[in-house]
Specification:
The chain is of the alpha+beta class. 45% of the residues lie in helices and 27% in strands.
Length: 128
Amino acid sequence: MKKLFVLAVMALTLAACQESLEERAAREAQMYTKKNCPAKISETVIMDSMTFEAQTHTIHYYYTLTGAADSLGITNKDEARTNLLAALKNTTALSVYKKEKYRFAYTYHSEKSPETVLYETAFTSDDY
C-alpha cells in the first residue's frame, strides 16, 4: 500500500512537470478570472478579467472604470503608468513570468460605454 501511494505521488509530480509555462499562464488566468472576477478594486475600479495571450506572451488585465473615474477617465496617464509599473515590480507572484520576460498589459474600459477604452498600457521586460 505504501509503495502504491509513493508511485501515485511520483506520477502526479511528473504529470505536473509536463505543463509548459504558457499552459500554466493560461490556466492560472482562466482560474483567477473564474474565481475572483468581477472584483471591486476600489470605489471606481472593477477588475473584469485576466487573460493570457500566448502569441505575444502577454498577461492582460481588464478593468472597468465607474462613477467619477468613468466620467473623467485617466487624467494623468504618466502617473497611472508609473503606479502600474511600481505594482508590477513589487508583485512577487509574477516573478516566474517576469523571469521569462513576459509582457503585462492593462486595459481600462468605461462602464457607461463598455466598448470605449479609457486607458491602455503594456510593459515589457525592459520596463520592469
